Automatic annotation (TrEMBL):
Protein family membership: Belongs to the major facilitator superfamily. Proton-dependent oligopeptide transporter (POT/PTR) (TC 2.A.17) family.
InterPro entries noted in UniProt: MFS_trans_sf, POT_fam
Annotated keywords: Membrane, Transmembrane, Transmembrane helix
SUPFAM superfamilies (UniProt xref): MFS general substrate transporter (SSF103473)
Subcellular location: Membrane
Record has Transmembrane as a keyword: yes
Its membrane topology: Multi-pass membrane protein
GO cellular component: membrane
Pfam families, alphabetized: PTR2
Transmembrane intervals: 197-216, 222-247, 343-361, 381-401, 422-442, 462-484, 505-528, 548-566
Protein name: Protein NRT1/ PTR FAMILY 3.1
Length: 607
């Protein structure tokens, strides 16, 4: 008896130690490590991508349209790999190790890119002052450039889908384990503040990149200009790994794609079966425990075909008594698939926005190069530094939104975060259209100044027009991003199944990938179709019709906004089962139309 009491005492002691360790992990104490990692990561990535058009055209001597397509193709690839990284994180690696290995590959790519700029053998010689033609980069030099960009693309596959979800996990899982003091509605507020804080840190990094780093590139040299981001990336890896003992690390729940495929296969096998009352569908708390630590998903009436996967029939059980996952799925797993399917149309609305803003890193910078950039007799604003106005506008809007606007909207709507994620996204999409309309008007003005000054055939001449004419289009785009980017990421994190949040974050980056590739396609088609009669996008923008391209983009955005409103009208927020006290409480998210569809029970409130 004494021995048994001793074992019980040891077990209680071990459980108490584990509970104390859990309480010491997660929370805002981990934010400096996570945000420092992402700050340095973005400083590195933006530090070379923001001015990449200049490097390709002036250092590698690549034509404008081809250079623009290289950038959009690179952005497309760099935003496609996060889908693979998200699946790896959710399946077996976990978010911490996926971020760590992704950072290593990114560091490798930055080192190669720095060597490409620093070593004379890896880039063409400078153009002679009076030479009509410059030597373009050789196949070998371009291959080294592509290899560098490929390594950084692989790296982003590990960092982008996981960093934000990993940071939000530190707050949500801490509260789920009882390590925090916030409950119910109070628990939602820090999590949404984290998303604003995260994007604020990202924009601060971008601001540093498009000022300090771009200045070094333009005035010191590309070796140091790319070396500084490379050093910053090394600091990012060190900062992140040093916080290892403080992190809450959610164990991977197995391949989410396999689970989704199992639900689809089971539903197809029982396609002729009649769906019974939802209360008769298969449930198994123990089976779902590892993928529903903050609550199981509850049954919804949409996409009822997949409910057939949860109908129990003969032959569904294995000899061990466990269900055959390819024949029988729980309601929670069925709802995981439904949630992902419902999310996809909303995600697709972000594609055109990325396409419409892709020219900010190419054509808009080339416009700035033709304008008067003198601040003082000895200092010119680097063209790529015009992106500073996008970053500043987003920083100011995020601060104003989080500290002022949310408080006002909260009084009107009763929501902790002011408005729904979808309403915030819709506001951003609307403002983005104004940015491109302004860009079209300014470009027409710029071209008329070139004509009046007799400089239509002098693409390298400085026009008598201030570069600050471009500020509104960059600034409005930053305001739009503050609403749309944060709203989309909040929506994905909130509406994705708990075990698929890295994969859901990858969907955010997938829209950037598809949007970038679509931007390449749009530029290629426009360039090809307008060659014969008044080319829109020539190397000499003074002879082009870039304003027509901007108006075309505005038309696409109008159609996209209508599509988004239709998707929102028919969207249903996921219902979640959580635990309040000793009893289970069913809590619902508000609906996509902005009306509060929640049910308050047991002292808790889920948003």
């Amino acid at each position: 008896m004494a021995a048994e009491d001793g074992r019980r005492g040891e077990k209680k002691g071990a459980d108490a130690a584990a509970a104390r360790k859990a309480k010491q992990q997660g929370g805002f104490r981990t934010m400096p490590f996570i945000l420092a990692n992402d700050f340095c990561d973005r400083l590195a990535s933006v530090g070379f991508t923001s001015n990449l058009i200049t490097y390709l055209t002036l250092q590698m001597h690549i034509p404008l349209v081809q250079a623009s397509n290289i950038i959009t193709n690179y952005n497309g690839t760099a935003n496609l790999t996060p889908l693979v990284g998200g699946l790896i994180a959710d399946s077996f690696a976990g978010r911490f190790w996926t971020i760590t290995f992704g950072s290593f590959f990114y560091q490798l790519g930055m080192v190669c890119l720095t060597l490409s700029a620093a070593l004379p053998s890896l880039h063409p010689p400078p153009c002679a002052k009076h030479a009509a033609d410059c030597h373009r980069a050789s196949s070998y030099q371009v291959a080294v450039l592509y290899l560098s960009l490929l390594c950084t693309s692989i790296g982003t596959g590990g960092t982008r889908p996981c960093t934000m979800a990993f940071g939000a996990d530190q707050l949500e899982l801490m509260n789920a384990r009882g390590g925090g003091q916030l409950r119910g509605a109070g628990a939602a507020r820090p999590k949404w503040s984290f998303f604003n804080l995260y994007f604020f840190a990202v924009e601060l990094a971008k601001l540093t990149a498009v000022t300090a780093v771009v200045y070094v590139q333009e005035n010191v040299g590309w070796g140091w200009g790319l070396g500084v981001p490379t050093i910053a990336m090394l600091a990012a890896v060190i900062a992140f790994v040093s916080g290892y003992s403080l992190y809450v690390r959610m164990p991977p729940g197995g391949s989410p794609l396999v689970r989704l495929a199992q639900v689809a296969a089971a539903a197809f096998k029982k396609r002729k079966a009649a769906v019974p009352d939802p209360s008769l569908l298969y449930q198994d708390k123990e089976l779902d425990a590892g993928i529903s630590t903050t609550g199981r998903l509850l049954h919804t009436d949409q996409l009822k075909f997949f409910d057939k996967a949860a109908i129990v029939t003969d032959g569904d059980m294995l000899p061990s008594g466990e269900p055959n996952p390819w024949r029988l799925s729980t309601v929670h797993r069925v709802e995981e698939l439904k949630s992902i399917i419902r999310i996809l149309p909303i995600c697709a609305a972000g594609i055109i926005l990325v396409t419409s803003s892709s020219h900010n890193h190419s054509f808009a910078i080339q416009q700035a190069r033709t304008l008067d950039r003198d601040l003082t007799p000895r200092f010119k604003i680097p063209p790529a530094s015009m992106l500073i106005f996008t970053n500043l506008a987003m920083l100011l809007t995020l601060a104003f939104y989080d500290r002022v606007l949310v408080r006002v909207l909260r009084r009107l709507t009763g929501r902790p975060n002011g408005i729904t994620h979808l309403q915030r996204t819709g506001v951003g999409l609307t403002i983005a259209m104004l940015s491109n309309a302004v860009a079209a008007v300014v470009e027409r003005r710029r071209r008329s100044v070139a004509a009046a000054s007799g400089m239509l055939d002098s693409p390298k001449a400085t026009l008598p027009m201030s570069v600050f004419w471009l500020v509104p289009q960059f600034a409005i785009h930053g305001v739009a991003n503050a609403f749309m980017d944060v709203g989309r990421m909040e929506f994905l994190y909130d509406q994705a199944p708990e075990s698929m949040r890295s994969t859901a974050a990858a969907l955010y980056w997938l829209t950037f990938s598809i949007g970038s590739y679509l931007g390449t396609l749009l530029v290629t088609i426009v360039h090809a179709k307008t060659k014969g009669s008044g080319q829109w996008l020539p190397d000499n923008l003074n002879r082009g019709k870039l304003d027509n391209y901007y108006w075309l983009v505005v038309a696409l955005e109008v159609a996209n906004l209508v599509y988004f409103f239709v998707c929102v009208k028919y969207y249903t927020f996921k219902p979640v089962e959580t635990v309040g006290g000793e009893e289970e409480v069913e809590l619902y998210h508000g609906n996509g139309n902005g009306n509060d569809g929640g049910k308050k029970q047991g002292g808790g409130f889920k948003y």
